[in-house]
Design a protein that fits this description.
The chain has 313 residues and is α/β, with parallel strands linked by helices. It has 13 helices and nine strands. It folds into two domains: 161 residues, Rossmann fold; 126 residues, Glucose-6-phosphate isomerase like protein, domain 1 (Rossmann fold). The strands form two sheets. It has a five-stranded parallel beta sheet with strand order 2-1-3-4-5, sandwiched between helices. Strands 7-6-8-9 form a four-stranded parallel beta sheet, with helices on one face. Pfam families: SIS. GO terms for molecular function: carbohydrate derivative binding; glutamine-fructose-6-phosphate transaminase (isomerizing) activity.
Length: 313
């Protein structure tokens, strides 16, 4: 079993502990989020997708924030009059150069930093005024899996804490076990071509972006994520029978089926009777599985993609 497969499988057992630990350590961060402005949420790659997801969670409780790729924050700070506010920084390792540079670009200002990371001893935790540990356990494979899904859990818990509500996580790990045991996911991976479009709306747009990235970095597939209707605005021009379209949470517009019949509906592989609020987590795991199997189908090493490193320095 590859390290990537092992880490994907661990998601069926680690979440109960992660949820408890995050809940125990989230209050100070939520106090800052409720009282600071502006709020920038930063990350790179998969961590940027975590930032987008938290941004959507904060929208639900009427808190204005802005998700920014780590490498771009310095341009915003340098070309504005922002002197104080809040930075929420996502990083699996806590060592990403672009993220550290982004935080250090605010030196001389009064920005407060919340670090959200899977590594409790890192440069990010040193630079943070408050930090939240994801407690997902070490990831040896280059591509992030369980640290991403636990970041989604952290975002849900932050929203709930601010809003004084509580999401029902009962059945989460049982549903994940069912997904991991679904042999059909391995079978449909055989139909995935070298060009993939992943479509999703709302919260699922973030998952579409992450799924496309997973396919790209794990299986060397040219993957792109879009909202369903946005894809029709010019991007559909390059759609053909050699393109696979993966749909999250909805069915494709009829225009798409006119140009390709290689369409995968993730909703066909998940029960509609479970808590729909947790669907983005389930979709993310399905896409991780598809990426891993696609790599193996192409005789690629799913643990160590040729051009990637665990930490971008």
């Amino acid at each position: 079993m590859s390290e990537l497969e092992n880490e994907i499988n661990e998601q069926k057992t680690i979440f109960s502990n992660s949820i408890k630990r995050i809940k125990d350590n989230v209050n100070a961060a939520c106090d800052l989020i409720s009282n600071k402005n502006p709020i920038f949420i930063i990350g790179s790659g998969t961590s940027y997708h975590s930032a987008l997801y938290l941004n959507s969670m904060l929208d639900m409780v009427s808190i204005n924030s802005r998700a920014v790729q780590s490498s771009q924050l310095k341009y915003i700070i340098n070309n504005s009059d922002y002197k104080n506010g809040l930075i929420i920084a996502f990083s699996q390792s806590g060592e990403s150069k672009d993220l550290i540079d982004a935080i250090e670009s605010t030196s001389g200002t009064k920005f407060t930093v919340i670090g959200i990371t899977n590594s409790s001893k890192s440069k990010l935790t040193e630079l943070s005024d408050v930090f939240i540990s994801l407690n997902a356990g070490a990831e040896k494979a280059v591509t992030a899996t369980k640290s991403f899904t636990t970041s989604l859990l952290a975002s849900i818990i932050i929203r709930d804490t601010i809003n004084n509500t509580e999401t029902d996580f009962a059945g989460l790990e049982n549903t994940i076990t069912d997904i991991l045991n679904n042999r059909k996911i391995k079978e449909i991976s055989k139909s995935i071509t070298d060009n993939v479009i992943v479509l999703g709306d709302g919260l699922n747009y973030t998952i579409a972006l992450e799924g496309a990235l997973k396919l790209r970095e794990t299986a060397n597939i040219i993957g792109e994520g879009f909202p369903f209707r946005e894809y029709l605005h010019g991007y559909i021009e390059t759609l053909d029978k050699n393109t696979t379209v993966i749909c999250i949470g909805n069915r494709p517009d009829k225009e798409i089926s006119e140009y390709t019949d290689n369409i995968i509906l993730l909703d066909d592989y998940i029960s509609s009777s479970i808590n729909s609020e947790l669907f983005p987590i389930y979709y993310a795991i399905m896409l991780q599985l598809l990426a891993m199997h696609s790599a193996l189908n192409r005789n690629l090493d799913p643990d160590r993609p040729e051009k990637l490193h665990k930490v971008v320095k």
